[in-house]
């Protein structure tokens, strides 16, 4: 208490960096899974390294993220109560189920990809294509199963990535988090922003993990589209909320972390890289990933520091 | 008729003595450095001869449309049979979602239990025994009134019927049960 009998102000930051990193990792996991599974499902002879990288990255990211979430609980060992006490009106309660199912599916998918690598010496790229009858038989007919897991997992990956936005936007008493799409009240803004950021960071992290690949032109093009959409969304956010949210220490995080490192530089690098086929994948993707982390931190803190 | 417990705070009668803050601490064994209620000074504001300072008792506002209850994933935060917002500490995992949702900063994670904690209107320890909450019975200036607002004969109901009172942060539509009478201080 201070001298005028005012109690010392409580720390306004209730959810700190642990939660920001958790939201970021959940996005990476969702994006990586989508990158791998969609390649697996739709791209004939898609790069096996990309499938493998995304399939392995997804469960690791989501499990580390969940670990942070549980660690942040006031009573970490009671986390299982989240599964047995359900509140359908609570976004977090619904999210627990989406993420749990996604985690299981991502583990199964990673196993199936791993198994097919072991059997075939390389990933049987197109699902269902029997490169060698014996290999498929040995893999226990997993190719068809993998297709189903890939489809279901992709749906729950979308759910997971979007959920991280809904978690914050559902706090209707938080002016920043509950920002609506301009002109359309009732449609929250953050789920869109976080979904696009999840796709782009997840894709970027997957490409880093894939290492040197033959032809990444398609992925680079998708990444450019995602970055352009994200720049538009961030601009909309900037224009539709009070400027106080972008002030103080958060100004650096926003302008340098989110805008310059996360969006503008990688966009320039990508445009250059695509046209010249220069191998700028790792620096570009690294910046996208850092930018995604900066975005989560910025949103989590801005919503709590300024009310 | 269902009960609706309510509190009225007459700010002009509050001396800022913090007897309520202390009474609550021992009534509810609140850990060191944490508070279910506190009455910080608002101000001083203005310039002489119009300098003003008053003390605003802050605690859970016992919202009837409580954002904390809505977001709680485990239903640990709930309305009890008398319409009060309470926390079932056996269900609470300490996720702090309720704390992000409460516009009044009324909640904290109890250092000893790891679960969410806040003012209960002293429901279990006093109300159910027919007593008034700890802070109300100890208030030196007689600034705090408490009772069933649905009982027209009660002190709070009569006060609310005859005075102009406000709820804090009405823009959030939380319909608090704690009413502030700023007459004489604002
Ligand atoms: S004041 Fe906060 S903790 Fe109390 S009922 Fe309202 S929202 Fe919940
Ligand atoms: S901290 Fe406890 S009471 Fe608050 S939302 Fe989480 S589970 Fe519910
Ligand atoms: S009603 Fe009880 S719990 Fe609430 S502030 Fe007063 S003494 Fe504390």
Structure overview:
The complex is a heterodimer of chains A (307) and B (186). Chain A has 307 residues and is mainly alpha-helical. Chain A has a single domain (17-305), classed as Formate dehydrogenase/DMSO reductase domain (Formate dehydrogenase/DMSO reductase fold), CATH 1.20.1630. Chain A contains ten helices and two strands. Chain A has a two-stranded antiparallel ribbon with strand order 1-2. In chain A, a hairpin with a 2-residue loop joins strand 1 (180-181) and strand 2 (184-188). The radius of gyration of chain A is 21 Å and the shape is globular. In chain A, 48% of the residues are buried. The model of chain A is unreliable at 126-141 (pLDDT under 50). Chain B is an alpha+beta fold. Chain B has five helices and nine strands; from the N terminus they run E-H-E-E-H-E-E-H-E-E-H-E-H-E. Chain B has helices at residues 19-27, 67-71, 97-101, 134-138, 155-162; strands spanning 5-10, 41-45, 52-55, 77-79, 85-87, 108-109, 116-117, 144-148, 178-181. In chain B, strand 4 and strand 5 (85-87) form a beta hairpin. The longest helix of chain B has 9 residues, at 19-27. Chain B starts with a strand and ends in a 5-residue tail after the last strand. The model of chain B has no long low-confidence stretch (mean pLDDT 96). One iron/sulfur cluster (SF4) is lined by residues 72-74, 76-77, 87, 92-98, 115-116 of chain B.
Layout of secondary structure:
The complex is a heterodimer of chains A (307) and B (186).
Chain A: H1 17-42, H2 48-72, H3 81-84, H4 91-120, H5 133-138, H6 142-169, E1 180-181, E2 184-188, H7 190-210, H8 217-240, H9 249-276, H10 281-305
Antiparallel strand pairs in A: 1-2
Helix pairs in contact in A: 1-2, 1-6, 1-7, 1-10, 2-4, 2-7, 4-6, 6-7, 7-8, 7-10, 8-9, 9-10
Chain B: E1 5-10, H1 19-27, E2 41-45, E3 52-55, H2 67-71, E4 77-79, E5 85-87, H3 97-101, E6 108-109, E7 116-117, H4 134-138, E8 144-148, H5 155-162, E9 178-181
Parallel strand pairs in B: 1-9
Antiparallel strand pairs in B: 1-8, 2-3, 4-5, 6-7
Bound molecules: iron/sulfur cluster (3 copies).
